[in-house]
Each structure stands twice: as C-alpha cells, then as structure tokens.
Specification:
Radius of gyration: 18 Å
Helix content: 25-40%
CATH architecture of one domain: 3-Layer(aba) Sandwich
Strand content: 15-25%
Largest sheet: 7 strands, parallel
CATH topology of one domain: Rossmann fold
Shape: globular
Strand order of the largest sheet: 3-2-1-4-5-7-10
Structural class: alpha/beta
Number of strands: 11
CATH class of one domain: Alpha Beta
C-alpha cells in the first residue's frame, strides 16, 4: 500500500485512519465535503493537524461534485467512510448513499476498495451473529449501509472489495450525539441512552483498534471478503457506561446477542484490544483538552 484515497477524511474514524496511514508512511488523498455547518472549528483543527505533512493532500468537495477518476488514478486503495448527513430523511439518505457509492465504484476497477459498514445492518437479532447471518436493518443508518453493501457486492471482479462492519466506535473526536461523548461534555447520561446500546448490540470498539483492523484487512491478499469486527465479549458498551458514571447498571435480564469475533481474530489478528476504560480515559482527556483550546468545538452541539 503506497497511496490511498479516504472519503470522509475529516470525520471521526476518517481522521484517525488518516493519522494511522500517514504514520505508516502511506500517501493519503483525503476527501471531505465538510457538510455539517456546526463542525467548522473541528474541521479546521483536524486539517491543521495534517496540512504540513507532505504525504497528505486535502480535497474539499462532496463526492457528488468531485472528479473522482482524477483523484483515485494513482491510488492503489480506496477507503470509503463517507456517509450521507444524518438529518435527512431515510429515503434521501439511501438515495444519496447509493448514488455516491456507485460513482466511486466506477473509478475503482483494479484497486482495493475498503468499505466501512455497520453492525446495525443486522437489526434486532438474538443469539450469535456471524458474517453469514441474514441482515434485517431497522434504523436509517442500518438501511443506508445495507443498500450500499448491496451495490458494492455487484462490483466487477477486477476490484477487490473488503467490507468491514463495526459496532459502536468510540475515542477522541467521537461525534457529540453518542452517549460517551455527550457524557464527557455534559456530565450526565442522555435520555433513553440504552437505545444506542441496542442499536450496536451492546458492543463497542476503540477507534484506533478499528483503524488497525482496516489496514490489516486492506493488505490481505485473499481477495474480496466481509468481516464483522467485535470485542468478542458481551456488554462491552455497558461496561463503558458503568466506567463513566462510576456505578453498576441495572442490567435487565433479556435475550441478548453476541457478535462472533472468530473471523476477525483469525483473518486480521484482531486481538490485544484497548481495554474500554483506557480508551475512555483518552477520550475524556481529549474532550477536556479541546474545551480549553476552543470551546466552540462542542458548545451548542450536544443538546
């Protein structure tokens, strides 16, 4: 892997993936349309972090408006992380996601395409979830990811497609509407906080572990594949909530599901993961630091 393109490079996971790859000596073309007007300060701060690196080039454009063929021409790998803006209607999000994904596929022939999907595509299920479990999305984000996966799975055989499905991802720069980040900003759990855990089957992973797995998956020579990333445990998200509030939750007895980590361990050596209390310590310290540097990053965005 010598040169890559990352869509959504100034997003949460996109930022960390860009940082990871630059540290590996990989050239990065980062595409980001900066579509959220409430995150202007955040975008500027992230861009300043990379702008002096000669291996990084920023493209300020939405995928719909970008000359993708030109940008991807010299890249051997494309990481597709960009998602439609969450405030749109589900049907519009699906339409936009499918349209931009198709456009991206047209220029990826002969390359490796790594697509970041979500455990949300499985919907409400119980028992053991594997890569072969039928999907049943019920949330808007889950439906978008499911439709985009369907498009990607029709790609020409000359393109190597790697689909990576993740549960809740946390760490520095996590969006403010997630439970952990909201807690570090406001000091209390948001109402109906358990809804988030249910969406991600109560599993959670630290962002830098996810970036490592994405890299390991991209460089595998086995061809196209789909991998579910998982902590391998049950209730990791709840463990994180308990660490934040400093007390045990009243975990109601209910049928639960667990996401199998068999494939991600055997294929990409997804082990030695960051303990959730260590990852949350780093996220908390980052929030405190950012609040001192530029309170505008979070003020008015956590309600």
């Amino acid at each position: 892997m010598k040169k890559v393109m990352i869509t959504g490079a100034l997003g949460f996971i996109g930022f960390h993936l860009t940082e990871f790859l630059l540290n590996e000596g990989v050239e990065v073309v980062g595409i980001d349309g900066r579509i959220d007007p409430t995150r202007v300060s955040e975008y500027k701060m992230k861009e300043m972090y990379f702008i002096r690196n000669s291996n990084y080039r920023q493209v300020d454009s939405r995928l719909q408006d970008c000359s993708l063929e030109k940008e991807v021409e010299e890249c051997d790998t494309v990481f597709h992380l960009a998602s439609p803006h969450g405030e749109k209607r589900a049907s519009h999000m699906i339409q936009e996601g499918v349209s931009t994904t198709k456009k991206l596929l047209e220029v990826c022939e002969g390359k490796v395409l790594v697509y970041l999907s979500s455990i949300e595509i499985f919907g409400r299920r119980y028992g053991n979830i594997t890569e072969r479990t039928p999907i049943n999305p019920v949330t808007s984000d889950g439906r978008v990811k499911a439709e985009e996966e369907a498009v990607i799975n029709t790609v020409d055989r000359n393109t190597t497609v790697k689909i990576i499905r993740v549960p809740l991802v946390y760490g520095p720069w996590q969006p403010v509407h997630y439970v952990f980040q909201d807690f570090f900003i406001n000091g209390t759990l948001m109402k109906a906080y358990e809804t988030e855990g249910e969406r991600y089957h109560f599993d959670s992973l630290y962002v830098k572990d996810v970036c490592q797995a994405m890299y390991q998956t991209a460089v595998r020579k086995e061809g196209s594949e789909t991998i579910n990333l998982s902590s391998g445990g049950e209730g990791e998200w709840q463990n994180g909530v308990e660490w934040c509030i400093g007390e045990k939750l009243n975990r109601k007895k209910r049928l639960r599901c667990a996401i199998s980590n068999k494939d991600c361990v055997s294929k990409v050596d997804f082990t030695n993961l960051t303990p959730i209390h260590k990852g949350l310590e780093q996220q908390r310290d980052h929030v405190e630091k950012m609040m001192l540097i530029d309170p505008a990053i979070y003020l008015g965005r956590s309600e």
